[in-house]
Write a structure and sequence with these properties.
185 residues, 6 helices, single chain, three-stranded antiparallel β-sheet
Amino acid sequence: MLGACADELWRIKKGMFGLSEAPRLWWLRIRKDLVETGWEELSVMAAVFVLKDRAGTLCGLLVLHVDDGLTCGEGKHYIDALEALKKRAPLNKWSKGEIVFTGRKITQHKDMTIKVEQHEYLKTLKPVSMTPKRRKEEEAELTFQEQKDLRSLIGKLAWPARETCPPLAFMVSDFTPKFPTSTIK
């Protein structure tokens, strides 16, 4: 069994989950794999890659966000580049037709229409936690922790309001200026 002594220093040669260096090392690896399989990063948009066929015609697009990726394209050159990427890139899940990308469920139907929704994301949101006794104090001002939790919840609601749930947009924007004077009610 290997172990480290107090006076030894170990150098980690690849990213390890949980270390602050891991995301940067993953990015460097995926970027290298993309470039080596024919993808070109757009200079005006980091983490957006295009693929052009031998005639210079755009045939693929790939977008990365943290550890999520979304790709689309068509033609033999696109399919070949994607297969080459799948063989070497540190990616563990590839989906067609229905995917989850940055919290959005994206479904492409046979008629080529695309549906984007965030129902599953919304289900993960939890109300501000408080005891039943505290909940009955309707006119009481929020505690520091309750304010912090409410601010977090509003931020989490603002994202789908902007992205896929316009009916939430008014409620979120209407509540924001009222936040400083919020009560339990």
